[in-house]
Amino acid sequence: MNPSNTTMSVWKRMSKIPGGKWAFSRLVCWKAPYFSSIAPLFTELRPGYCEVYMAKRRNVLNHIGKVHAIAMCNMVELAGGTLTEITIPPSHRWIPKEMKVTYLRKAETDLRAVAAIESAPAFGVATEFPVSVNIIDTNDETVLRAVIAMWVSPKKQQ
Question: What phi and psi values does residue 61 have, to the nearest 5 degrees?
């Protein structure tokens, strides 16, 4: 796993200062604006592991007052994508190819997405890289399990 990239460098600097995790989270949403819809907060980040928090608030609720399934899918893609970004070598790029989601129970509290991998393969040629993500409520109950198949390939030479 190769942590030598811009995202990881920025996280290491910002996460140590007061308000730095919040500011880092806003920077990620500035780079990928769609994720701002869930107002995420990165709480932990290292190669092979990413944890993102989302508060239960009106903007992420469905018609029955539970956290909307797609808001949780946004958390999955954000955590899984950020893990991938800081784990693959700088010579490679990635894009989500497929996401398999299992909803286990209603999400009734604030949530955290935990993306984790055991180990990364040796990235060379294009390959599918599976990233597991669990969404966990404040009672430590897993409400959603997902696996994102990330397509990782060498960057084109210019």
Answer: -95, 155
The candidate with the shortest Cα–Cα distance to 21, out of 39, 3, 5, 44, is: 44
% pLDDT > 70, the chain: 96
Q: Could you tell me the two tokens for 52?
A: 């993102």
Longest dimension (CA), the chain: 51
pLDDT in tens, 36-92: 999 999 999 999 999 999 999 999 999 999 999 999 999 999 999 999 999 998 889
Which stretches within the chain are classed as H helix? 6-14, 20-31, 69-87
Lookup: tokens for 84 = 């991938």
User: Which single residue is written with the structure tokens 């597991």?
Assistant: 132
pTM of the entire structure? 0.91
- How remote is the C-alpha of 27 from its chain's centroid? 14
What are the extents of the domains in the chain? Answer: 6-154
Indicate the class that CATH gives domain 6-154.
alpha beta
